[in-house]
Automatic annotation (TrEMBL), chain B:
Gene source species: Zingiber officinale
Pfam families: zf-Tim10_DDP
Stated name of the protein: Tim10-like domain-containing protein
GO biological process terms on file: protein insertion into mitochondrial inner membrane; protein transport
Disordered, as annotated region: 1-20
Keywords per UniProt: Chaperone, Disulfide bond, Metal-binding, Mitochondrion, Protein transport, Translocation, Transport, Zinc
GO molecular function: metal ion binding
Oligomeric and partner information: Heterohexamer; composed of 3 copies of TIM8 and 3 copies of TIM13, named soluble 70 kDa complex. Associates with the TIM22 complex, whose core is composed of TIM22.
Any single GO CC term annotated in Swiss-Prot or TrEMBL for this entry: mitochondrial intermembrane space chaperone complex
Coiled-coil residue spans: none
Length: 75, 91
């Protein structure tokens, strides 16, 4: 099967999109569990929506911290 | 029926025909979209069952039904909040 560069590019792009979708899905699941502790209401309280946004950003901070730790352990 | 097969052309020794790149890309996109939708449905189902059906009765009560409706809406909203938080953090 001829794998044209167009197909390669397309597959790369879709792979990226899938990785992002997976991360969003996983994070939403975990942050929902952490932040939405009572019965869902007709809208989020401001503490709930703040918690969700914080949760995503702290996850990123934590990821960088872990990467740095791994790098320092390799030296 | 295998979505990637197409009827083999008459004549020609190997008889194998390959869909065009465009057709393949469309099929991949459709199948991916379907897979995402199914996974999302499953996640929402699980989360809202946990939150709303705490003591299963002999039928879904009115409060359980409205809880589930709100839960689905909130979960979709939460997905948006997380997406935006992840991608505005990169600026």
């Amino acid at each position: 099967m001829d794998s044209s560069p167009e197909l390669q590019r397309f597959l790369q792009e879709e792979k990226q999109k899938a990785m992002i979708a997976e991360m969003v899905g996983k994070l939403t699941s975990e942050c929902w569990d952490k932040c939405i502790t009572s019965t869902p209401g007709s809208k989020f309280s401001s503490s709930e929506s703040t918690c969700l946004a914080n949760c995503a950003q702290r996850y990123l901070d934590m990821t960088m911290l872990i990467q740095k730790k791994f790098q320092s352990m390799q030296q | 029926m295998d979505p990637f097969s197409s009827p083999s052309p008459s004549g020609g020794s190997s008889g194998q025909s390959v869909p065009s790149a465009d057709v393949l890309m469309d099929q991949v996109k459709t199948q991916l979209a379907q897979a995402y939708a199914e996974e999302f449905f499953e996640t929402v189902r699980s989360k809202c069952f946990t939150k709303c059906i705490t003591k299963p009765g002999t039928s879904l009560s009115g409060s359980e039904s409205s809880c589930i409706t709100r839960c689905v809406e909130r979960y979709i909203e939460a997905t948006g909040i997380i997406s935006r938080a992840l991608f505005s953090a990169h600026r």
